[in-house]
Amino acid sequence: LVYRGAENDFSFFDDNGTPLNRADDSTIVRANAQFDQGAVLLRHVHRVSDWRLTAVGLGSFQDQGVPGLAVQQSEESNLGQGRAFFGLRAARSRFLSDALDLTLLAGGSLEWQRFQDPLGELGVGVEDNRDRGWLGIASLQPTVWFGGQVALRGLVEWQGEGFTNRSELDGAVFNANRQTLAAGAELEVALIDDRLRFTGGARMDGQFESDQSPRALWSPHVGASYALYAQEDLQIEAYATGSLAERAPAFFE
Predict the structure, then answer these.
(1) Residue 212 contacts by C-beta under 8 Å, 6 or more apart in sequence?
(2) How deeply is 35 buried, as exposed, middle or buried, from its count of CB atoms within 10 A (0-12, 13-18, 19+)?
(3) What pTM does this model have?
(4) CB atoms within 10 A of CB 162
(5) In whole angstroms, what is the distance from residue 183 CA to residue 176 CA?
(6) What ranges in the chain are assigned the alpha helix state H?
(7) Percentage of the chain surpassing pLDDT 70?
């Protein structure tokens, strides 16, 4: 359980936006920069037969003033945000055969924020906007072992997202949604008594978004590692990786 907050009413030097005119310089106090933040994290691990289950719940909130520019500070502008997430992971070694491990993932989240500028202090007019979003995810991740030196990891995943923006001033509403189907694979090869390892793989996300054409996003990666020193109580390893990650912006972005 976490909480933190600050008044943020610190003083600072202000040249009033005229750096060449020292007559209007002064030290002023920062206004409307206060914030409160909190979070709670719950985690539970449980075994059911050969399955290892891990459940995670996370909630957070933030309430803060939006101070504006130094030469034109705001007094009433405010931003509130909150998130709630729950996830469940089920993992089992030697599923159906000694050469197959399986991991299942499922989760969902809710996110919301509200921005208020009742006096139009930030230069874009009076605002009172609410944003809400949800996300659901389900993933299947098998690992196939070929002896002790080669492992092939796979991924099949679905994600669904929704977003709503509402103006409390005029009632205007904007909605958007997105479905994502992903597949990926990674090959790992171990050599020299498992001291040298090579990995390489790629992930492809097919996205289907409202009012947009479908698109494919690719994320390849490669890597290598070498155990310079390996004993029971100490291992020193050097590694290098390279990747290219491609994703669409989240709705809140």
Answers:
(1) none
(2) middle
(3) 0.80
(4) 15
(5) 24
(6) none
(7) 100
